[in-house]
Amino acid sequence: MTGGVVKFARESCNFLFDRHEFTCQETILFQFNTHLSEVLLMGQGARTQAVNLLKALPIHRERTPRPGGAFSDSWKATLLLCGVLFIWESEMANAASWPETLACMPLHTEAHQLNQTNCVQVMLSSFQSNPVVKALIFMPGATDEFYMFGRAKAELSTGNPTLFDAIAALTNQTYICATFRPPLLLLHTKDDLLEPDAKIHDQRAADRIRQARAPAHILCNDRDWDYLQPILRWSLKTEIKPWRNSRDSWHFYRHSFAACNLTGWEALETAALAGKTSFTIRRGEVVFEVDRRSERKNLKPPKNDAQATPHFVEGES
Question: In the prediction, which pLDDT does 49 show?
């Protein structure tokens, strides 16, 4: 072990490892899987993170080829494929486990009925940090059911109800549906678009935002743009437009969501989905504007709204 390196040679590979970081192939696999666990918590862009992580590993092929050295690149590609499959399987497991996760979150306020006076506040305040669901978002269609139409009411028949019980009651007794778009849980109606409209004009700026971190906990209960804009601007260290008190934000929906441990990109998506906005990333700034993809054509409630029993979407995206 002189000369600062430890030589590791097998039939299928031939690498030099810095002795202070790696002593064998198992050590590399352990560190790679450790970082993969961190990548899983980042949600959006996890596969890109895995690729960049693997490229950054301090692995070097010897300049003097040896038998079996030709398989080095294949071994590296195999490791990358295993990592991506590991991430994909974990994401699928997360998608199936969000009901169980929310079933462990009791409602903080005792309520026998969810309606326009208490539903949003009770559910958002009960949301807790967890590794599966990073944000609970009431989309504009869902908040309209409470504040515009005033027809959304759901009875809670169980004792000591949980956040999942509240979501199940809403989806079975109102027009509101639930869709898990990892890592965001969306409460919406058929009028809402579940994919945010994002445009990237500067890739380097977008990459920096993906690496940024939003505040550990954000709670917006019927908050306007002037409340949310400074939070995004400070955490992403990027100019966020429209500025506060600007007329350009007058037609944004008020935001209702609770979020924990979002990345910068997830924070932008959450703001867009909650406010029915789209955003464009340019050099040094992110510009939000009203999402014009689906203008509401009919704001009148259906005739037989009292008999509505929409299907409960269990973890589908």
Answer: 52
Burial letters 94-111, b for 16+ CB under 10 A, else e = bbebbbebbeebebeeeb
What is the pTM for the complete model shown?
A: 0.67
Cα 310 to chain centroid distance, Å, stands at 25
Distance CA 123, CA 138 (A): 10
Structure tokens at 285: 């700034």
Helix (H) or strand (E) holding 152: none
Question: Does residue 133 have a pLDDT over 50?
Answer: yes
Position 7 scores a pLDDT of 35
E-strand ranges in the chain read: 5-9, 14-18, 60-61, 113-114, 135-138, 154-155, 177-181, 184-188, 198-200, 217-223, 239-241, 255-260, 277-282, 285-290
Sign of the alpha-carbon dihedral angle for 149, 259, 196, 250: positive
For 198-223, letters b (16+ CB in 10 Å) and e give: eeeeeeebbbebbebebeeebebebb
What distance in Å separates the CA atoms of residue 104 and residue 237, rounded to the nearest whole number? 35
Q: List, for residues 15-53, the tens digit of each pLDDT value.
A: 333 433 333 444 444 444 444 444 444 444 444 555 455
Tell me which residue has tokens 């008190």.
245
Give the 3-state secondary structure of residue 115: coil
**Mean pLDDT, rounded, of the chain:** 77
Q: Which residues contact 123 (CB under 8 A, 6 or more apart)?
A: 107, 114, 136, 163, 166, 167
The arrangement of strands across the sheet holding 255-260 comes to: 177-181, 184-188, 135-138, 255-260, 217-223
pLDDT of residue 169: 97
